[in-house]
Predict the structure.
Amino acid sequence: MMYGGVDVFGIIAGASNIRTGDNPPYTSEDFLAAYPQFGKTDEKTGQPIIPAVMLEAWVKMAHASLSKARYHDAWELCMGLFIAHFLTLYLQSAASPDDPTGKIINAGLAKGMVSSKSAGDLSVSYDFSIVTGQEFAGWGTYKLTAFGQQFITLARIYSMGGMVVW
């Protein structure tokens, strides 16, 4: 809508910080080229540690969530970090169908950072402060992996506009 020769909708769209546009191709193969550790196979079964259906699902989710128009040259890096973060969470919760029920349940429980271990009478303590820390407040599970923490940093840089001082 033009008002006095000014594109009002263009000004509003620019101020909204919403970016739109189509993404270029990014495939499972692109991801595995950057993060080959997720392409490993299980030594016992010979199966990939990440089922192809899970990898493809997270590639699709990354496409739906991350816009090239926002992240520009860092888009491929952000795509990889996003996918690696969620696949790390997947691996933390993965269990074999042959595992006892208790082990399957335990694999799906939330995990903090191991803060101490003992051998006599087995004891493990977990620190959940990283989950509640202010630096990553509001970022959900992204704060739980190194990949997610890197993604948060880039997302903050690219969404804030203006200037970043290191």
The CA atoms of residues 1 and 8 lie 6 Å apart. The chain is about 50% helix and 10% strand. The first strand starts at residue 2 and ends at 3.
